[in-house]
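Lab manual, section 2.4: Encoding a predicted structure.

Procedure: take the sequence of the chain (157 residues), apply the prediction step described in section 2.3, and record the output as structure tokens. A sample record is shown.
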Amino acid sequence: MAAQFHPVRAAARHMAERGSGVVLTVIGHGPPSPELGGTRVAWETVEAMYRQWACELGSRGVRVAWLRTGGFAESVAGAAAYGEDLKVIVEGREVPLSSRSDEATTERELDELARSTVLGALPTLADAGHAAVFLASDRARHVSGAALNLTAGAVID
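Recorded output:
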């Protein structure tokens, strides 16, 4: 929470003084599920904080928005760096992420995750970049206090 709160508070002061600016972040999103622990709670708390900032900063010309994601293709492919405490289900059994070493396993996981979305694909980091550029641009000048759902339809709003 502090990593979200303090930088935004510092930047928002300057934006409010200028009478313009956009505060953006990326937040994980998805239905409650086992083994998310405090992660899901943190996502909801960050969204609540961003909603409040939108209310407080809007009248000073500062917009606040965020991207909701269920993960990006690159984050799944590179997930082995997260450590052994995180596990995935591979061929019906639980496997530590750090033990994944073959590309075929990663490709199967990516395919399975993609099939779980309405669009049949996972968003990429480039997709997130394009969405963030849109939200920060004047084309989104009337978007504030809102999330852009970048889950490829894995989560329907």
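Check your result against the sample. Residues 80-84 have pLDDT under 50 and may be disordered.
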